[in-house]
Amino acid sequence: MRDVWPLSCGGGRGGTKLSVRRGPSGTFGAGREDRSSRGSLPPASHPLDDYRWATEFYDISHDDVTEDLALFLKLARRCPGPILDGMCGTGRVAIPLARAGHSVVAIDWSSGMLREFRRKLRREPPSVRRRIRIAQTDLRELRTKDRFDLALLPFNSLPELLTLEEQAAVLQRISAHLRPGGRLVVHIDHPDRVEKEATRAILHNRTRMLPGGRVITISEAQEFDPRTRLLVMHLFYDVSRQGGTPKRTTTVWRMRATTLPELRGLLRRAGLRLERLYGDYPADPFRPTSPYIIAIARRGTAGRDER
């Protein structure tokens, strides 16, 4: 496996002062932990709002998703300025970064996910809490004077925007807030893998013990439309006690299986040059059979995309 390349991040040093500013369109200046901010929220039918039905189960569903953290922490060590965690969810990435001493601006528009994030953050020591700034807003409308050395769109965040135009808007707003030489990391599942693994059969995902002697069983069924390239995942959360009747919560999660050529084009439109392309963690070279597409792109650098 190939290690992360020994490059330093562009931009200035840390210590950037962050301040909250509210604009007429609900834009924000990333600042102190903003517990009252509501930003510019999408309509309830927006796919990212699907999390509102199962926020309490999100961390249980993803308790094994840790393989990307080593790469993010390694990149962060070379970036002295603040880090943007886009679509931060419940703080899966932001909290480990803050524990390692980095300042993080964490953005999401799901009130339920951020509520869980703040609940988890209250259990952290004050030194960690001070390093994280939370804002609820729409990344497509990001407006702040702050600039970042490193921005992250981990774990299929970008494909949750269901059109290429929406994805382009997010990448363009993030690019505008990177310092010269700043980097963006985008993780998406390889679209061939997405299509191959989609099945309408209901499959067991995992079973976990919950506090109070409860048990949760998570199942899923996936449908993929090759015409629209949309994956629809139906999730079933069954919570019960031994010998009891399960209580079921259902939700739907959607993503667009964006291809590598499409991602290259989106990055170019945003003024970002693709520097590294990995296919697995920690930094395995990309191959057609790789499970992931992990793109690391840089702002403000001339040159051709890496092939």
User: What is the name of the CATH superfamily of the largest domain?
Assistant: Vaccinia Virus protein VP39
Specify the CATH architecture of the largest domain: 3-Layer(aba) Sandwich
What is the H/E string? HHEHEHHEEHEHEEEEHEEE
Instruction: Please mark out the parts with pLDDT under 50 across 5 or more consecutive residues, or reply none.
Output: 1-49, 302-307
Q: How many domains comprise the coordinates?
A: 2
Query: How would you name the oligomeric state of the polypeptide chains in this document?
Result: single chain
Secondary structure category: alpha/beta
Query: Strand count, sense and closure of the main sheet?
Result: 8 strands, mixed
- Helix fraction by DSSP (H/I, runs of at least 4): 10-25%
Secondary structure tally, helices: 8
Counted beta strands: 12
Portion in strands: 25-35%
In round numbers, the mean pLDDT is 83
* CATH topology annotation of the largest domain: Rossmann fold
Give the C-alpha Rg: 19 Å
- Distance from first to last alpha carbon: 18 Å
Overall morphology: globular
In the CATH scheme, the class of the largest domain would be Alpha Beta
